[in-house]
């Protein structure tokens, strides 16, 4: 188990647009937290602020008593290693094999020359194989990443994040482009890592049912603000109405009753 992640009045402006507006959260070690909201609600910016891919305009982010917003240079690079990020686009090198793509997650432990030469120890290779095994991908280890399905590529990206030995794992819309079967495998992989390793996981989701099924805690955002923070059971229809508005709830109800929604078990939050 690792330390608390705390956001205090975190705000981020992009010109005249406020992407995140005075967001405050305290996330205990080992929680599986889903962040939901319409497109443009500030979900992706929130995760990028935590990882320091984006700097806050104001406010504070700390982890285990360390002020993350003050980190620079080597300390900032160490934080980005400890706070692994999984992207919707996978960000794999298609021409490289799966094993090498996973080993890229170890480059932060190497010096400049070692990184350029892509030299990895036997211990690191064994670590990468173990990560692939946890995600049912060992048979694909020597296959070029570009030949894999989208779901397989996303699981490779999770394995790459896993070999960083992170303290927190962030996933930005990891299943947005996947079919239901692959989405389930990706979410199952994240949940197993969360439960087996006690690793804190923050994941942005565009499907309400997925958040309810997998997450210990759900944070809902609207116009950059945290509008809801609680358990799946507390996320009632009235709360959904407040977050998405009457039109959004009507679209949501229609999706729930549709044949496709019943067949897949996944309900998309209105875009």
Q: How would you portray this structure in words?
A:
It is a single chain. It contains ten helices and ten strands. The protein has helices at 43-51, 73-82, 98-103, 112-117, 122-134, 150-162, 180-197, 208-214, 237-257, 259-264; strands at residues 5-14, 17-27, 32-36, 58-63, 66-67, 83-86, 168-172, 200-204, 217-222, 225-230. With 271 residues, the chain is of the alpha/beta class. The chain is globular. It has one domain (5-264): Rossmann fold (3-Layer(aba) Sandwich). α5 crosses α6 and α6 runs parallel beside α7. The strands form two sheets. A six-stranded mixed sheet has the order 6-7-8-3-9-10, with helices on both faces. Strands 2-1-4-5 form a four-stranded antiparallel sheet, covered by helices on one side.
Secondary structural class: alpha/beta
What are the secondary-structure elements, in order, as H or E?
A: EEEHEEHEHHHHEHEHEEHH
Write down the overall mean pLDDT: 87
Number of domains: 1
Described by strand count, sense and barrel closure, the largest sheet is: 6 strands, mixed
Low-confidence stretches: 251-271
CATH superfamily: P-loop containing nucleotide triphosphate hydrolases
Distance between the termini: 36 Å
Report the C-alpha radius of gyration, rounded: 19 Å
Give, in spatial order, the strands making up the sheet with the most strands.
6-7-8-3-9-10
The helical percent reads 40-55%
Tally of DSSP β-strands:
10
Under the CATH scheme, which class?
Alpha Beta
Q: Strand percentage, roughly? A: 15-25%
Number of helices: 10
* CATH architectural category: 3-Layer(aba) Sandwich
What coarse outline follows from CA principal-axis ratios? globular
Keywords: ATP-binding, Cell inner membrane, Cell membrane, Membrane, Nucleotide-binding, Translocase, Transport
Protein name: Phosphonate ABC transporter ATP-binding protein
GO molecular function: ABC-type phosphonate transporter activity; ATP binding; ATP hydrolysis activity
InterPro entries: AAA+_ATPase (IPR003593), ABC_transporter-like_ATP-bd (IPR003439), ABC_transporter-like_CS (IPR017871), ABC_transpr_PhnC (IPR012693), MetN_ABC_transporter-like (IPR050086), P-loop_NTPase (IPR027417)
């Amino acid at each position: 188990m690792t330390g608390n992640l705390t956001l205090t009045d975190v705000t981020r402006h992009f010109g005249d647009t406020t992407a995140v507006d005075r967001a405050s959260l305290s996330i205990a070690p080992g929680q599986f937290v889903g962040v939901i909201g319409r497109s443009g609600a500030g979900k992706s910016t929130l995760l990028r602020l935590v990882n320091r891919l984006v700097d806050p305009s104001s406010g504070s982010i700390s982890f285990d008593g360390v002020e993350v917003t003050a980190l620079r240079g080597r300390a900032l690079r160490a934080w980005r290693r400890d706070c692994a990020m999984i992207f919707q686009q996978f960000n794999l090198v298609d021409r490289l094999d799966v094993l090498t793509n996973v080993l890229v997650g170890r480059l932060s432990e190497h010096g400049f020359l070692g990184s350029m030469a892509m030299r990895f120890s036997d211990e690191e290779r064994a670590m990468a194989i173990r990560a692939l095994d946890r995600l049912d991908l060992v048979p694909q280890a020597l296959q070029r990443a570009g030949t894999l399905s989208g779901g397989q590529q996303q699981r490779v990206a999770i394995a790459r994040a896993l070999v960083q030995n992170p303290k927190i794992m962030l996933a930005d819309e990891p299943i947005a482009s996947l079919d239901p079967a692959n989405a389930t495998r990706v979410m199952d992989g994240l949940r197993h890592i969360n439960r087996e390793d006690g690793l804190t996981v923050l994941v942005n989701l565009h499907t309400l049912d997925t958040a309810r099924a997998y997450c210990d805690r759900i944070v809902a955002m609207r116009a950059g603000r945290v509008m809801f923070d609680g358990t799946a059971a507390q996320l009632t229809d009235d709360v959904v109405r407040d977050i998405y508005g009457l039109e959004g709830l009507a679209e949501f109800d229609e999706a729930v009753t549709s044949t496709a929604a019943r067949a897949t078990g996944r309900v998309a939050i209105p875009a």
